[in-house]
Amino acid sequence: MDFYLARLGLEDTPWLDPATAAVIVLISLIAAFLFHKAIFPLVIRATQWTPTDLDSRILLATRWPLTVGLVVLGGFLATVISFDLTEGQRATADKSGGLLGIVLGIFAGVAVVSTILDWYLENLAHRTQKVVDVRLFPLLRRTAVAVIYGVGALLILDLLDINISPLIAGLGLGGLAVALALQPTLANLFAGTYVMTEGVVSPGDYIELENSVSGYVVEVSWRSTRIRTWRNNLVVVPNSKFAETIITNYSRPAPAVNVQLNLGVSYGSDLDHVERVCREVMDQVLDETPEAVKEYGSWFGYDGFGDSNVNFWLFVQANDRWGAFNLQTMLIEKLHRRFKEEGIVINYPMRTLEFPEGWGPETLGSSDGAGHAGNGRRRVRARRPSPELHVPQESLDEAETGGRESGA
Questions:
Q1: What is the pLDDT of residue 1?
Q2: For the range 89-93, what are the long-range contacts, defined as Cβ-Cβ under 8 Å and sequence gap of 24 or more?
Q3: What is the Cα–Cα distance from 389 to 381, expressed in whole angstroms?
Q4: What is the pLDDT of residues 315-326, one digit of tens each?
Q5: Where exactly are the structural domains of the chain?
Q6: Cβ–Cβ contacts within 10 Å for residue 358, how many?
Q7: What pLDDT was estimated at residue 403?
Q8: Are 390 and 351 in contact (CB under 8 A)?
Q9: pLDDT tens digits along 107-133
Q10: CA distance 190 to 18
Q11: What are phi and psi of 17, to 5 degrees?
Q12: Any idea which architecture 200-249 has in CATH?
């Protein structure tokens, strides 16, 4: 370039270097303006043919960093080309340009990551309908931004000739110490991530834990899960324990709850008549109870021969858990009323005991009676366990007669 300037007689002109730098800067400004106002809109218009607008959003997020990058590049070229720099000055210019490039790269990376996460939440989150979309992505955004800033800071330190190896080693040891100190908190954090991503429970679900804690889920946070019990108390369960326990979710896979009644009638009942009455009662309850799921229908079946009754079951469905309580109450009330009207008997639990001949209540006070009773064999025939003891009168009379004869 000095050769051409010498032929023009401009090799010793003092204003030439600043003028050259100004021209380069002016060219870079014009190029940045054209890129921002003309070229970039054309590129954005070309992306309209793609299936989604994600690429358009990414390009828009990098619009200003690229524009400013053109201006920074023009300033760097104007400095290193126009002026005769020493070796130290050239190194300083290189470092300055590199620092500005890293800063612009950090801003561009943060903008791209934020744009991708925002696009996902706006377009796909409503399809998945999971808590992970609402709770996890803000955390991912903050984590990604922190990582980008951290990597950028390390690159800047390395560009400034600062040895980052001890810093990385210190960060590793410090991170290990912090992880050990915050082990319970980190355990709850990762367990909370599992609970949210698994989608097993959601706010409003009625659940029951393995330790008999039951209630409605109020909130699923990163550290704990809050449950409101039927006593209107709040139970806070750490996510590390919540993820390891057995959970029964009464609201999944559907809010409808099945209602089953197990009953029994005496062996003298007409079973066809019993079934007909039960089906009439179930149809009446389904028609009169708004909480009942009429499309599900009603079901009846005999279960087996019990100790005192012929056992059977009734099966209907309620639209939710609270409706199941009302539906079950209506069934019990109407079945009890109809059974009394139709003369259908449900046997009470009864136990019948058979004693050996010659044993009676009065023999308990005599030594002979006690010995005789002790040598005899006692037989018990139980129809069904009951707290009441029923001894037939015939057995008592027979035992009393035997006791008198033994006393004579």
A1: 53
A2: none
A3: 12
A4: 999 998 888 999
A5: 2-180, 200-249, 257-342, 352-407
A6: 17
A7: 46
A8: yes
A9: 999 999 989 888 877 776 555 545 455
A10: 59
A11: -65, -45
A12: Roll (2.30)
Backbone torsions φ then ψ of 298, nearest 5 degrees: -130, 150
| Average pLDDT of the residues of the chain | 79
Tell me whether domains 200-249 and 257-342 share a fold: no
Residues in CB range of 67: below 8 A, 6 or more apart:
32, 35, 36, 40
Q: In this structure, what are the phi and psi dihedrals at residue 163, rounded to the nearest 5 degrees?
A: -70, 115
- Tokens standing for residue 249: 């979710």
Least confident among 52-56, 201-205, 397-401: 397-401
Residue given tokens 């300083």 in the structure block:
92
Confidence of residue 376 (pLDDT cuts 50, 70, 90): very low
Are 353 and 321 in contact by the 8 Å Cβ rule? The answer is no
Q: Tokens standing for 235?
A: 């139970």
What does pTM read for this prediction? 0.52
Match 């082990």 to its residue by tokens: 183
Question: Is 257-342 in CATH node 3.40.50.2000?
Answer: no
Alpha helices by DSSP H, 343-389: 367-375
- Separation between Cα atoms, residue 117 and residue 87, nearest integer Å: 45
193 or 303: whose pLDDT is higher? 303
Q: How many CA atoms lie within 13 A of 192 on its CB side?
A: 19
In sequence order, which residues have a C-beta less than 8 Å from that of residue 376 and are 6 or more positions away? 356, 358, 359
Q: Cα–Cα distances in Å, from 364 out to 216, 293, 405? A: 59, 61, 15
Query: What tokens were used for 342?
Result: 């139709």
Instruction: Report percent pLDDT > 70 for the chain.
Output: 75
Residue 39 CA to residue 161 CA, distance in Å, equals: 38
Residue 360: predicted pLDDT: 64
List strand residue ranges (DSSP E) for 229-384, in order: 234-238, 247-249, 257-265, 299-305, 310-318, 352-354, 379-381
